[in-house]
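Quarterly update from the structural biology core.
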Amino acid sequence: MPTDVKVPALGESITEATLGSWLKQPGEAVAADEPIASLETDKVAVEVNAPVAGTLAEQLVGEGDTVAVGAIIARVSEGAGAAAAPAAESTKQAADDATNPAGAGETPLPKENVHAPSEEHADLTLSPAVRRAVLEHHVDPSRITGTGKDGRITKDDVLAAAKAKDDSSPAKAGAPAPQAKESQSSEAKAPPPGPRPAPGSRTEERVKMSRLRQTIAQRLKEAQNTAALLTTFNDVDMSAVMDARERYKDLFAKKHGIKLGFMGFFVKAVALAARDVPAVNASIEGDEIVYRDYLDVSVAVSAPKGLMVPVVRDAQAMSFAEIEKAIAAYGKKAKEGTLTLDEMTGGTFTISNGGVFGSLLSTPIINPPQSAVLGMHRIEERPVARDGQVVIRPMMYLALSYDHRLVDGREAVTFLVRVKEAIEDPTRLLIDL
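Predicted structure, tokenized:
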């Protein structure tokens, strides 16, 4: 008798999710506890594992459907059942053709465009986004080493493979293309290019917002509607920090096994400034103000499905190495989609670095119930006055957005000046000034 696959508990107050993608198809063999589907909640992606070993007998919901906690989404038959695969696959293809005409939505990977996988990739499964990237860039997924969880191929892996293929092509290298040999295997031949829009055509594509994106939109609008938002700006000379990094980067990497980045300096500077201006690390709960003697920093990191804000807890007590290691680990998890709810909740202050994308200046929005967010931006050499002389310095604009209901303008400016002073003279971070 088939075993039901149910939506697992997703965390406190979360009662439903969206089925993001199927990782296994009907008729395919599954191992016990092997991921067969990916769910999207309003915060993170959660994988659903097979309760028993056997064959995925049927899928009861489609990608993009909303499912409740405890709902049955699939059934697994114990035993091989490999013979059911062709029939199940053809049934699914017919269903896809009926519900997804003219290529709307996600496109299944055509068999004629995929090279026969080697034994190492015999169980290759691709998410819809990865399938689409494979089609667009005409790469062989069986030749890509996945960096995702359990070695799965991510969209970034496909893009990297496509770039490597372009860089190594004869035309790219400036050499004449070699003549194709008759004995060349079909595996080495490039797949035919897909259809292109006619010149001058005006096309549109409608994609349903993910649950995560809907929640981000809702929370940002909530912040605007609830908080009295205001932003103050300053600029900071990054010379001292850049000199310190250049001087100690090799020793730091050798001792701690990780690069010394800018974020460690800013987290330490924020911790120092928050002691002088505790309101920026406080929050409003009802008619009370909650002040904290600890600093849990939400560090915004980029992920394929949007911006994630994992929390570096007790940052005020951490060393540079501990901060850098924590941020690097969160960045890797965000890329793989394995951040947990606990790792993304409970922050008391946020740092957002738009400079990695080239932003010169911005007004970040606070993440409720937090009362402030520090925005970092790109470093740019600019002329500045020093001791009556015009000199060139690597400068960065800083922006502090804050809830004016709790933080006064004087406090906000004082906080940002404290951060500026600590960055321009990192010795302050060591002697607690």
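The chain is about 30% helix and 20% strand.
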